[in-house]
Specification:
By secondary structure, the chain is α+β, with helices and mostly antiparallel strands. It has 4 helices and 8 strands; from the N terminus they run ββααβββαβαββ. The structure holds coenzyme A (COA). Coenzyme A binds near residues 90, 96, 99, 101 and 102.
Length: about 180
Amino acid sequence: MTTTAGDLRSAGKSAMYREPTRADLPDIQMIDGQAFRDQRYPFFVLRQLLEAHSYRSVVAVEPEANGEDKVVGYALTIGEGKRAWLISLAVSPERRGYGYGLGLLRRSVELCRERSDVDEVLLTVDPKNRAAYTLFRNFGFTLHEHDERYFGDDEPRDVLIYKLHRITPPVGIRENGYSGT
Ligand SMILES: CC(C)(COP(=O)(O)OP(=O)(O)OC[C@H]1O[C@@H](n2cnc3c(N)ncnc32)[C@H](O)[C@@H]1OP(=O)(O)O)[C@@H](O)C(=O)NCCC(=O)NCCS
């Protein structure tokens, strides 16, 4: 599914949010490396994560003059059962501040909501990462727990949680809106 960003602040640019394809992998790898440097995913891990979880991963793409897509950000969500984990979210440095991070986050949560088994979305964030922390808190994520050594020495992380708050239909009303047995 593709979503057009309605609230882009990008001058003259319009972004689309869609499922990643294999052809997007080099761009995703570059953005991942620029964002996370020595903590970036090895290529084979990124490749396999996207292969296994593309259906709930998202890329933000801008159309180029040659008609091709330019990937400017990506988000990767994994997990089984009621908990989904947003394990990576990054926007290319030159395209930050245009609303893509929020667009990727919104679409990722939307994809979790579309799956009836998922109740909550979790993620980890470095407490010193002001941009990411502000993005997540303003969206509605709250503190779940803090771990001083989450990724080892001097690598504290806050685990944030977003509850999907599904509306349960009253007893006797099926999910499709019909009542009766
Ligand atoms: C975090 C990140 C994804 C944000 O992407 P972005 O496209 O620049 O963010 P957006 O333009 O959508 O901003 C959405 C909101 O995030 C917050 N935000 C973004 N950048 C911010 C900054 N530098 N300082 C404070 N808040 C910031 C703001 O609340 C902003 O809303 P506003 O513009 O209405 O104030 C981006 O900075 C990034 O890729 N960082 C490196 C990777 C990373 O840290 N990922 C998160 C790992 S947990």
